[in-house]
Amino acid sequence: MATLGLGDREVLREGIACAVLRRPDHRETYDALFDLWFPAAFGARAVVTDDEADDALADDSLPPDDVEAMRQMLLDLLTENPELGDMDERLVAMIARIVEAYGKYSSSRGPSFSSYQALKSMALDELEAKLLAGLLAAYGDEPTPTQEQIAKALAAQRITQLRKLVDAETKRRTAEQ
User: Fold this and answer.
1) Phi then psi for 33, rounded to 5 degrees?
2) Which candidate among 129, 130, 136, 170 keeps its CA 20 to 30 Å from the CA of 26?
3) DSSP labels for 130-164?
């Protein structure tokens, strides 16, 4: 770890993976444990940007009770980010706000977080349908069956990635407890 340094989390992740992993099927377990022992953040995430006007999510201008507005903002962010692997800070902040607002519940051991509860409040089926409609709009009034299949696959892929991101955020917060 002294050679890799602690400055870049991804370099540390890959360096340790090269040293300890022997089989590719162990990677998923390794990634989960790495996120547990070297969390990306502690507590609520904060996004710091230079351009205050561009980042509408930096402040809490949107109350957590306004589910429809949060769904619309999430839809806009999913549309703007074709590859969720290259997330921008606004999407990370939005996922953190969703988990905080809708995934938090009280258990016998104190507060905890549920990805199911957070995702249920976002109505992913409806969100996927709107995302699909937006993707199909680019093809005009009569998309070909191939274009429909591509759009369906892209919408399903983005929703699956969103589920994984929310699940990772809830695991991070639960592990912190």
Assistant:
1) -70, -40
2) 170
3) HHHHHHHHTT-SS--HHHHHHHHHHHHHHHHHHHH
What average pLDDT is seen over the chain? 78
Q: Do the Cβ atoms of 131 and 79 come closer than 8 Å?
A: yes
Percent of the chain scored above 90 by pLDDT? 5
Against a cut of 0.70, is the pTM above it? no
Helix (H) or strand (E) holding 115: helix 115-121
The 10s digit of each residue's pLDDT in 98-154 is 888 888 888 787 778 888 989 998 888 898 999 898 888 888 888 888 989 998 998
SS3 state at 68: helix
Q: Is 4 left (phi over 0), alpha (psi -120 to 50) or beta?
A: alpha
Indicate the DSSP class of residue 23. S
Mean pLDDT, residues 38-57 taken together = 52
Non-local CB neighbours of 110 within 8 Å, separated by 6+ positions:
177
Query: Which of 156-177 are b and which e, b meaning 16 or more Cβ less than 10 Å from the residue's Cβ?
Result: eebbebbbebbebbbbbbbeee
